[in-house]
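Technical note accompanying the year-one report. For the benefit of new consortium partners, we illustrate the data format agreed upon in the data management plan: each record pairs a sequence with a structure-token string. No post-processing was applied to the example shown here.
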Amino acid sequence: MRQSLIALSIAAALAAGGCGKDAAQAPSADAQAPAAAAAKQAEVGNPLLAEWTGPYGGVPAFDKMRVADLKPALQQAMKDDLAEIDAIAGNPEAPTFANTIEALERTGAELDRVFTYWGIFSSNLSTPEFRAVEQEMAPKLAEFQSSIVQNAALFQRVKAVYDARDKSDLRDDQKRLVTLTYNQFANNGATLTGKAKQRYAAIEQRLAELYTQFSNNVLADEEGYDLFLRSDQLRGLPQSYIDAAAALATEKGQKGNYAVTNTRSSMDPFLTYSDDRKLREKVWHNYYNRGDNGDEHDNNAIITEILKLRDERVGLLGFDNYAQWRLQDRMAKTPENAMSLMKAVWPAAVARVKEEVADMQALADSEKVGITIKPWDYRYYMEKVRKDRYDLDSDEVKQYLQLGKLREALFYVAGEVFNFEFTPVEAGTVPVFHPDVKVYEVTDKTSGKHVGVWYQDPFARAGKRSGAWATTYRSHSTFDGERTVIASNNSNFIKGAPGEPVLVSWDDAETLFHEFGHALHYLSSQVAYPTLNNDVRDYVEFQSQLLERWLSTDRVIDKFLVNVKTGEPMPADLIAKIKKAATFNQGFATTEYLASALMDMKYHTTDPEDIDPDKFERETLKKLGMPKELVMRHRSTQFGHIFSGEGYATGYYGYLWADVLTSDAAEAFAESKGGFYDKDMAHKLVKYLFAPHNAIDPSVAYRQFRGRDAKIDALMRDRGFPVPEAKPTTVAVKD
């Protein structure tokens, strides 16, 4: 079925995120609907239900969307979708692939379109008005989903096709679609009966409410803890940050002051550069205490209830814990396999942190400041050590990282490796939901064939969730005629002064490439059916993480990393310093990430009865040997990946799993004749790793690309860690 129903939970759809470093995958929308949709639109008069019109096979009517239309649009779309479902379930003909599985692929076009607008309001333009609608509709949408999953007649038809699949003449991708569709039902309560079936549905509804509350609480704490500084509190901060902070303060009605917002994009550079230790501590506490302030937006009790309900729900299906249920269709297959990989890397990461802290403490001692390194000191002294050891100043590097030039670099890589060309769409041709959004048509460089449309929404604003993410408004398919992709990248860069270019950090530049990797993955799709675009969670980050590697290629550096004032290319000595420092700070980066991934798995493999998240987090990290000088990347009460929906629940380890593939694939490129621009390697990359999505098993796809399974050795070398002698040596898991 389409992404907005079974493949993704309704709650995940409501979270409306996207694949990314700080996000989860969002639903796509189908622009093609039955002809009856147009007639119904005239009757209903709701623009959110309307079939998309305009160029490129139709585009979202972002200029017509209003929060007031969401609730009636959802109600109508659910009603129409259920009618389509009932028609399939009540078909008197014997179940076949065409009249059951393909028929399901055609349902819900209206609902998918409504979810596109919902996702924009949720992630890009959230308001109190929208959140009220979201809170009201979440349980109703969960009830709607349950009514489909628990439709006994529909499930029996799906099961009949599933049972006959191996004796049929279906193509391999069609058989995989049958299996995925069956599992979507069977793994979500379709096999239950009686009271168990009713209880499962009730749990789904309550979880939808809790996921919405969790994400709204985090957003409330992000919006409610702005810090406004005076001009005498800016010591150490780069001028580009000061200018952006001044613009933000003016926007928030505090002209003459400087705003530090409670988001990662504002917090991270402040902790890196501010000389004021007390202010660093305050900013650190504001950020890492989101959802954990003991007030109306506290998420601890919500986490406890979520864990208990998840555990009860999978118990109804016969599983020992939530992780066991969740990982059965992932590359890892079991929580034990996922934990095995994480534990192979964890000791080396923690050991590196100890080395990093020792270096920072020695530097602090030499300054005679009389401090012991605390979490709010880590980034600050890390930057000092970087300058001291590598003579590398992050602010100097930023002078060569202009957002506009980086976008040009993205397009260059897309052209050289994927044969895509990005052309700006004239303003007004395609509706946008905010003036900051820019739109580009994507075509094949050789043939000129239309591939899709790409939207970029780069800047932070009130009501926009933090982080960076990618999403699709329409996914690719061919079974009813070719449907082209509409993709979007979303970031939270801070605007500079009017007319000034936006400068970003090296980490932010990597994130830009990462999220663009997701967009290229969407745009490269060659699958026949929409459901086959739903990627396996511990594989979906691989393509995006791999694209990060092109940022540091010589061609990108030479062509696009030019000084903001002089236009001169980045000098060779600075490039050498960046590459020499490539493994610097890997202790911090790996440990803060792995702590979150390990906590995710621990939460979902532990009896949740009467669990106290604050206490559990503290005690579990202590047992793991978490260094006291840093915290997990996403503390429990703000861990939206796993508690504002189910997209990454027990799946946060997937970034590491995918990074094993990334490091191994990057070595394959590095060893090839043409390096990262080798044409044969690029062809194999697109053919086996980008185009198929979930049409074939990811382990099989990787072996087709590499000729073998991925090995952990390359990952350890990338991070400057010793290669472990113990297993696992690969991330392939045989069934």
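Partners are asked to follow this layout when depositing records. The domain at 3-219 is CATH 1.10.1370.40 (Neurolysin; domain 3).
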